[in-house]
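dude i think i finally got it to work??
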Amino acid sequence: MATFELEKLPLTYTHSLSDSSSAYQPFPSHSHYQKYYHYNLVITDKDQFRNFLLVSLTIILAIIALVLILHFLPHKNKHQGTSINFKLAINHALTFYDAQKSGHYPKNSPVKFRGDSGLGDGKSADTDLVGGFYDSGNNIKFTFTTAYTTTLLSWSVMEYHSKYADLGELQHVRDIIRWGSDYLLKVFILPTSTSKSNLTIYSQVGNTISDKGEPKNDISCWQRPEDMDYARPVSICDSSASDLGGEIVAALSASSMVLKNDTEYSKKLVKAAETLHKLVTSEDPKKQGTYTMVDACGKQARDFYKSSSYKDELAWGGTWLFLATGNLTYLDYATETFKSAKSNESDFDNGAFDWNNKLNAVAVLLTRIRYFRDPGGLYEHALRLSSNSTHSLMCSLLFNDFSRTPGGLIIMKDDNGPLLEYAATASFLSKLYSDYLHHLKFSGAKCKSNVNYILGQNPLKMSYLVGYGDKFPVHVHHRSASIPWDDKKHYSCDGGKKWLNSKDPNLQVLVGAMVGGPDMHDGFIDQRNNSRFTEPNIASNAGLVAALIALSDNSSGLKDSF
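look at this
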């Protein structure tokens, strides 16, 4: 028997701390945590060692052959089609936001079947709420999802700025983020030194519930936003809407970094975020809660975006505010709130990242801070909790702890709801964490399967991104896309319903809209009046955009920062 010894010496760490005060740093050529193993190999019998090498080589070749055989064997859940055109898919997914814009419509928009709309929004509350985005296929504007969308798009730019630039989409996504942040600056009114009023936050424009005196609303009517002739009430909240406040803080903070080339505007966003954060977090803990708990604030939204918790949004907002300012006070708040929120997370929400649950996203952001910024030993315990949480999630995603459809799409929440939103955000977080590991000199994982499914590599060979590929949904649940576009012809609340129930394809292609998608058995019903399958929304599309840009090439792309 060959006699040789392999000695593994102790694991050591090298550590460095940047003197820069900026919290969001470019990825360094070396991280604060780099692992080094040292080995000593002592060979005592060269002939037997040659035999050992031959045997080892034979085993290696056999393994390679087995891998190749398995790779080229037919797989039940593989639905390979043409290669993915990420440049086109990203452009399409961003164009959806151009179609969702409310207010004074840009003349240079690539979407030609839209115009000015909602120019009276906010008048019923004696304020200006013109602008923002329509949430989905209806004409409602939800502040909660607008803020989430703005935050997630901003995050994707912060991480993958160079990729957006290489694809020629950097200015496009910046314009969309600016459209969102402009609106978010309007949705809250800060108390003044002379006023006795509390903080005011406007959570919604539009009506989802028919009043006795007004049966027409944004749900009962099938009407283009340019033709709306019904009341547009405003839902009003105060500082007890902790989740809504935290989400707005996150959006303003994240967008301030993306838009920092406009120095004064960026400072305005940060100042507003800091003031709002102070008001929301200083509220009596007994009064803190979700915005949908109070009728005046969130009754209208309960059937659409009922919030189940608020501490995740407060941690989310605090984390982004730290990244925007470098102020460790916000990191203190974020880490403590994250620990509290994590201890109360339900099994049902565990793993999902969406408009309702930000815990896994916060964990990834805090892990980023631990790996590449390391604020010091005082934060090590709290940040280790976040990195452990992130590692646990990634293991669950990579080792198939979650169920999947027969076609291979991950099922993050077993509630018979749309699946694609969770699949997109899971892909984004997986690829992002993989890129973090790449910069730490670890190997990353391949994370494209869910996005490939969305773009057509599925049992139905259908792209769920409208306008992408040869086969995609043509009966999208969307008022503007289904009703004829004519500046001179206006359709009433009931007059537009003939297009809701029509079996003909939409008259306008809603390019870039990711629809609700298939059920848990890969089935899909392309019917306009079946919103479960065919309705898109701005929050879901944000996750898709983030996943697409993260996966758009084989490099990490994490080279530039703002």
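Residues 4-72 form one domain.
im so relieved honestly
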